[in-house]
Design a protein that fits this description.
14 helices; about 85% helix; single chain; Growth Hormone, Chain: A; mainly alpha; about 350 residues
């Protein structure tokens, strides 16, 4: 079994957290081709992304309280098995409706893989130490959105969009085996409260009554929603409007994602020295700079592809400075219900992203 405060455990948690970007970013270069082969509109194809976000949001709201009651490892294994099965259905989907439904189930499984590492971190650490660990995980995980679109673009060009889901399923099977064989149970004292709708509602009401929880939640949700505006629109703009191939798109998408690696690395280095609030504030300022500069460069007629990619690099950097520290700030005061706190943060993030993605 892996021990706490080791690089191996951090790397495993980063792999699990990467299920979100792996499931979306490998698929993004294939979205225009899915529409062409199924003979449906871009908005219909975009529903495969929105359904994923809805499934992810639903999963986020239920996994945490269940894991508070039953433990982290068994709930994590169930979510991974669901993820692998749903991904296999995506690979053989005969029509867009089946793909939309399977993507929702895939997300329901991926939600546990992304959420529970946050709860595990809170089981082991608190405050700036938790933010430092989440930033380290974020920096490692940031390789996924860099590599995933490149790999997705190459698989799309060579083997077609279904093969991307085969690769994703293989990653899921490997992660399930690693968790089964080496993941320790980190929840030392399980919640005695039964999991019920009334109990969940009361727990979430208590969390939302905390002004500081709401502030941290707002930063985490807004930064994530902006990311999904980019994910939803970029394949159709860069490939459909500006004529990039799937592989060219994957390369430029990866360039923007390198900003996440930069932001996560910087956050891990500074958060224990300057604290959560200053790290979040710095990240929020960089987020603002990226978004405003994107609008300004397009408004004055600068080269659109370069403007979009470079300003999104800035946005990614700010996001990975602000978001891990905001999550740590939200869940640190609640060690007795860390799973539920992580669930509520994750649900609001995904719900916000789903709405923004659908609007875009």
């Amino acid at each position: 079994m892996l021990r706490a405060d080791t690089f191996a455990l951090t790397a495993l948690l980063a792999l699990l957290t990467a299920f979100g970007p792996i499931s979306t970013d490998m698929y993004v270069p294939s979205m225009p081709d899915v529409g062409r082969l199924f003979a449906v509109s871009a908005s219909d194809v975009q529903l495969t992304l929105s359904s994923y976000l809805v499934g992810f949001a639903v999963g986020q709201i239920v996994y945490g309280p269940i894991a508070d009651r039953l433990g982290r490892k068994p709930v994590l294994l169930v979510s991974l098995i669901l993820f692998c099965g749903a991904t296999a259905v995506c690979a053989v989907a005969p029509n867009i409706g089946t793909l939309i439904a399977a993507r929702a189930l895939q997300a329901l499984g991926a939600a546990g893989a992304v959420l529970l590492p946050r709860a595990i971190v809170r089981d082991l650490y608190s405050g700036t130490r938790a933010a430092h660990e989440l930033s380290r995980i974020g920096a490692m995980m940031s390789f996924a959105p860099v590599v995933a679109p490149l790999l997705g673009g190459m698989v799309q060009v060579g083997l077609g969009w279904r093969a991307n889901f085969v690769v994703i399923a293989a990653v899921g099977v490997a992660a399930t085996a690693l968790v089964w064989l080496s993941m320790p149970e980190t929840l030392l004292q399980r919640s005695s409260e039964p999991v019920s709708m009334a109990g969940l509602w009361q727990r979430y009401r208590t969390l939302m009554s905390d002004r500081m929880f709401r502030a941290h939640l707002g930063v985490a949700a807004c930064s994530y929603a902006g990311l999904f505006a980019w994910i939803s629109g970029s394949p159709f703009v860069l490939q459909g409007l500006y004529g990039l191939s799937a592989l060219q798109f994957g390369i430029l998408y990866a360039v923007a994602c390198v900003g996440s690696l930069a932001g996560g690395t910087i956050a891990a280095a500074v958060v224990t020295r300057i604290g959560l609030t200053k790290t979040i504030g710095s990240g929020a300022a960089i987020l603002l700079a990226g978004g405003v500069t994107m609008v300004a460069t397009l408004a004055v007629g600068l080269p659109p592809v370069a403007s979009l990619v470079l300003t999104m690099f800035v946005y990614h950097t700010g996001m990975m400075l602000a978001m891990p520290s905001a999550i740590a700030g939200a869940v640190t005061p609640y060690p007795d219900c860390a799973g539920a706190a992580c669930s509520l943060v994750g649900f609001v993030q995904q719900a916000s992203a789903a709405v923004v993605g659908a609007v875009v």
